[in-house]
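Practice problem: predict the structure.
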Amino acid sequence: MNKKILFIPRYALIPAVIYIITISIYYIGRGLTENSPHYSVDIFLDQLLPFVPSFVFIYVLAYLQWFAGYVIIANSYKDICYKYFGGDLVAKIISLIIFLVFPTVMVRPEIMGDGVAEGILAWIYRVDEANMLFPSIHCLESWIVMRGTLESGAPKWVKTLMLIFSLLVMLSVVLVKQHVVLDIPGGIIVGELGILLFNKFNGRRVYEWLENRIGW
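Answer:
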């Protein structure tokens, strides 16, 4: 039986720590492209979609979904743990390259009203600039934890909930105008590419090497 540290198996600790470090990739890309030209990838569908501030609750709860999803993945089979933590790592590296080569930007709507949703969204707009949007990291993360949960041994109701919530997250990013439509498939494709490349080049060897070095 694998010894657990907090609520994940010991073998998942290294992938989890590396995952936490990759959060900085988004901000690294933003800092390095601050003075670069930015591009818009909005299409006609973006003009048709309404602005729905109440979806900010789904947008924010996505962070809880990712945490829960990766705990489920970490407690699944070791191969699944490595596959999805590793796939996320590769996807984040690909995202950073895209951020550096093709930084994007969008125009946000004016927030009207003084409700709770509007207040939260106004705060998000202040702390999160409308750039570095393609691919959507929100969609990338929700897609990967959904894929990993579906492949795990989680109960069927958990898998169904994860699937539905991932779809709602992808809808939320455009309804709160944090992303444009093309950022959604961008996040999904990059997520899938990350998983594919991690498997193709047997990336689990990196985790195993680190485990051996630490003496696990």
